[in-house]
Amino acid sequence: MSEHTHDADQAEALLAQIQAALAAGTPLSITAGGSKAFYGREVNGTPLDVRGHRGIVSYDPAELVITARAGTPLAELNAALDAGGQMLPCEAPDFSGSATVGGMVAAGLSGPRRPWVGSVRDFVLGCRIITGHGKHLRFGGEVIKNVAGYDVSRLMTGTLGCLGLITEVSFKVLPKPRASLTLRLEMDRPRALRKFAEWGQQSLPISGACQDGGTTLLRLEGGESSVKAARALLGGEEVSADFWDGLRNHQLGFFKDPRSLWRLAVGNNRTPADLPGDALIDWGGAQVWLKTTADATQLRTLAAQAGGHADCYTPGVTDGPLPPLPDTLMRYHRQLKAQLDPQGIFNPGRMYAGL
Amino acid sequence: MNILYDEKIDGKLHHVDRAELMAAMRAAMPDLEILHTHEDLKPFECDGLAAYRTTPLLVVLPERLDQVETLLKLCHRMHVPVVARGAGTGLSGGALPLEQGVLLVMARFNRILEVNPEGRFARVQPGVRNLAISQAAEPFGLYYAPDPSSQIACSIGGNVAENAGGVHCLKYGLTVHNLLKVEALTIEGERVTLGSDALDAAGFDLLALFTGSEGLLGVVTEVTVKLLPKPQVARVLMASFDSVEKAGKAVADIISAGIIPGGLEMMDKLAIRAAEDFIHAGYPVDAEAILLCELDGVEADVQDDIERVRTVLTTAGATDVQLARDEAERIRFWAGRKNAFPAVGRMSPDYYCMDGTIPRKQLPAVLKGTAELSVEYGLRVANVFHAGDGNMHPLILFDANQPGEFERAEALGGKILELCVAVGGTITGEHGVGREKINQMCVQFNSDELTFFHAVKAAFDPAGLLNPGKNIPTLHRCAEFGAMHIHHGHLPFPELERF
């Protein structure tokens, strides 16, 4: 990895590699930190390593905007923001610690704060991409409000590299909260889920709500006064905030269970009562981490009944780890792929077979 | 170069006989209300951008989803363009009809289907008014955050199509940040669900793509929005400044102090005076600029932040800082800002509203550039500004009855937008491209980027039947527009820093 420690603009080299792949009709498998290599389907393609294209291009805290090249380590981005007293609030997972900015956007995965502040795509303001026509283009920008043309930057978020190569991204960032604390409450699951729904309707400075067995964990973030008042109102015992990083990066004891890991995204206040396996409830009930031996069909039916979907985080369990699409929607996905990546060179099959 | 649809440069449209189309519609949908007489069509010839008018071929007012579905299938089969319209309050001509097209009015889909306080969402039909959602949620202490200034009249379907904003965007986001799910129909009359009841959905984020696509990719038939708890309190501070630069600096200082106000608005002298004459909000008419800073949330935090912001404003050189003493005064402070457009309208027979967004630090340079352009074109410009998120609304004052003034206002507006692009901003922050800014899209995007947009469109509507001529210009139009622009081999505004 030593060759990737310096800021460098390698957009020209990446463009040349993609143009060569287009000329030869060779599929590419986009890689960077590899922290989310387990996510999605396997790609048969020539590796295209983005790590060398790295560095923060611009950051002005007063503008609430940061722009970084795709290969920039997420840790470096977060450190720069931290020094500016700010943060990327969606707190995307870093898993192994090698995650990059481009990988974060391509995967679109968000952390425990997501229900209260928004997802990765909510903070994306603009991006540069190398397209399936061999062009390096810019969409969106470095301003918070921008409705000129289609919202290509948000479309690219979460496409797992299937529509083009993201080379640079601009994000909206926010000041770090002045006060933050984590509470542990002895509260069983049914009661916790009822409370989550109740608290969700109130002006409380909650920014994390997780339930594990008999324990419920809450994170309070905001001004000193509101956090103090909420602490008094909610009771419980103050514990270390490290829990949230453990949850975000799947390093808690729960994730060491050898069974397959599934994620169920469900509607607010629709968390299934009976879950087949061991469950860790996140996002105030709207995200369920499940260690289970249940099959994909059963889990997907369960998630669909709760208004959502299920994806598998353990490789090799199913050929379709990402939630299947209805036929009509899949047709439009194929048409979009055919338009934007007509030769099918970008991560073919990473999301869905044949896409 | 005419802004109205020009088949020579915007693309050939299929010409269908009105009587033949009506007969086909009546046969397929006997109970669909169709307007076809000149008097009936006339009220639909423009949206909120009244300067541009076109009489549609026909207007249809469906009441049921199956009618919309059948209509789209029929138009698809007969190659008839379809322009969807909600309340028709848009300011960029996004719902401007086509002589050869059907205007599909979704206003009758006006039912709130579900308000779910525990799930914190509301499921509504597209014709429901923005404000009606918050009113329906109010008994539960909840509300729908995006609040475009037309919220009393504009429909949620139109908000989705335009990715509508408002004065609280910096803290609470745009429409795209406040949606869970959209049901839409494609031009082929196929039903698609974008997003889900959960916080994310399978596949590509087509919900984000459709939001703000100005009716070019599909027709919105149902919307599920997120509801938020109403902030316990909202307080507003008004600061006066003797220079626009100092006011701009104060905005950056507030944000640098780690405070994200619920609303942060700036007005310049001309706008202040217009608003004060109209509303008597208590604005300081001698100030060069005022800032309105609203702090909302949990009461204890708001109290702390008021003191912080007051200190920042004073340090930044405010000549006066006033905290609205009570709710009545808060509403009065805001009334001046919210009525700035009609207030300016009283000073001039006509006005033209721009919508560029810029990096905040470029504010003094852009205001200076705007003032110079104002002199050059001989037209007054009043500035109101969503300062927190960099979204400017210069209002160009003109008199359409004076020969050539409208054309001059249009040209001046175009120049202001190009200035916004030159400093790293965008031609539209929240009003949309529509028809109004179609030429300036050629300044913001190069031909490869426009080609990419056309490819996105082709994935959903290859025949180009949904709202043709809006949002994305043809390369042909940009070539014509570029030919009109005389660059003399150098960029406009050479004194400005580039990004």
In words, what does this structure look like?
The complex is a heterodimer of chains A (355) and B (499). Chain A has helices at residues 11-24, 74-83, 101-107, 114-117, 120-123, 152-156, 189-200, 224-234, 242-248, 296-305, 327-340; strands spanning 28-31, 46-49, 56-60, 65-69, 86-87, 124-130, 136-140, 165-172, 174-175, 179-186, 206-212, 215-222, 237-239, 260-265, 278-282, 287-292, 309-312. Chain A has 355 residues and is of the alpha+beta class. In chain A, the strands form five sheets. Chain A has a five-stranded antiparallel beta sheet. A four-stranded antiparallel beta sheet of chain A has the order 11-12-10-13. A four-stranded antiparallel beta sheet of chain A has the order 15-16-14-17, with helices on one face. In chain A, strand 15 and strand 16 (287-292) form a beta hairpin. Chain A is globular, with a radius of gyration of 21 Å. Chain B folds into four domains: 14-105, 2-Layer Sandwich (Uridine Diphospho-n-acetylenolpyruvylglucosamine Reductase, domain 2); 117-229, Uridine Diphospho-n-acetylenolpyruvylglucosamine Reductase, domain 3 (2-Layer Sandwich), CATH 3.30.465; 233-342, Alpha-Beta Plaits (2-Layer Sandwich); 348-484, Alpha-Beta Plaits (2-Layer Sandwich), CATH 3.30.70. In chain B, the strands form four sheets. Chain B has a seven-stranded antiparallel beta sheet, sandwiched between helices. A five-stranded antiparallel beta sheet of chain B has the order 5-6-10-8-9. In chain B, strands 1-2-4-3 form a four-stranded mixed beta sheet, covered by helices on one side. The chains are: A alpha+beta (355), B alpha+beta (499). The interface between A and B is large, with 90 and 96 residues.
